[in-house]
Amino acid sequence: MIFNNFHRKLRQEAQLWRDEGIINSSQYEHIANRYQFNKLEESTGDSFSMIAILVGGILLVLGVITLVSANWQGWSREVKFILLMSLFLSTAITGFLTWREPKLALAQGKKNQEGKRFLGEALLILSALILGATLFLMGQIFNINASGSELFLAWGFGVLVMAYSLALNSLGIMAIILIQIGYWLGLDDLWSSPDNLTWAKLAVRHMPLLSWLLFVPLAYICRSRWIFGLGVVAFIFSLQYNLRPLPLLTFSDVVPWVASFSLVLPPALLWSYDDLLFPTINYRLFKPLSRNLGLICFGVIFYLLSFRWQWQGLEYNYYNPNNFANIFRSLPIIDLGILSGLAVLQWLFFVRHRNSPPSREVFFKIAIITTFLGFILVTPFWHQAITRITELGIFIFNVLLITLAWGLIQEGLKLRQRGYFWCGILLFTLQIISRVLEYNTDVLFKSLVFLTCGYCLIAAGLWFEKRLSSARKSNGGNGGNGGNTYNTNK
User: Fold this and answer.
1) pLDDT above 90: percentage of residues in the chain
2) Which pTM value belongs to this model?
């Protein structure tokens, strides 16, 4: 519709230019042929047809729902099952055929039918919703005592199969959301009764590994950065909530390596990630996104571990550290082993598959990243297993946070990228404000700090924008593109 509105406005303007003598008739015909003004009415008819089909489909669905609700109690379980499955299959098949028709028409050289493609995708999404309703109703009809976690996980895995089969972004995103809802609903059950295992509890326990193995390949099939990003977020959150590493002196003190592994794995995996690890992939689609997410992980970890309360034990212990067997059974040991092996493999691939020896600058970046990972791995373990280093740990991670913020600012200045520059500035400002609020300071001092931070933010923003404008003028208007030429092989 936006595309058609642009063409309509262009046709109106072109006609006005022709009438005012700005362009002649031949120029108008050339513009009309280029932007296909003669097909606007035909596309309008297609749009109205799609609207009519959509409204008719809604009325049909309402009619079916009304019929079913009026006779639901009188039908047998078999009739209800056949009816629900027929509704799901008919909607899915109709949506698939409607969604595939524009591709077949385009392959045969016929006109593009975007409206049918959108309608088919909408029907496929509707069929995915019907699948969820069918699962919930089947549980009631056959008296299946399934928890909310089991229902949402089954629904999500079913939609995930549809997303893999059709390579649809919308279904992939929907599957990730549903599986995550099932994960959060089943998280408490996993900790309360780790011995009573069901398939849903196994899925919840191994959700970090499942998120990486199921969602990342789907992102390549759909070529979707959204699916990759959501899959990475699902992996990180499920790993942290399954292991509960923070504060450091909780149940993870009983198993001291848990906090180190759970904190170091996300940035280690994301920063070293390379699309070329897959044998059939010969392009780097997600590597820049993965590295940016890895830098975000570094920032979040450094910021959280810069607080004093993260290094101190709580007055109570929700996990009962005396019950070591219960805790150990709840840990996803298999996930940690496989993901750690994958991280090592990625770093070996990163070291061996460089086209040329790294430059001094790239070598310095790699050294900084490995230093970050080393401190994340060693410091919590030392604090939990050997001796308490509360003050030293707080100092280390405050220094690491300053180093990361400064590196982001320098990267933004060098590449002329607002994202890196402002992330560094905001991270540095957040650190100052957090330290002021964390410790008991005078109100006047807090006010002075807030005023100073606000002034510095405004001054830094104006200075950076002025620097970008000067660079654009000196480079003939192309200076702002420097940030888009970031070498992902670094």
Assistant:
1) 22
2) 0.78
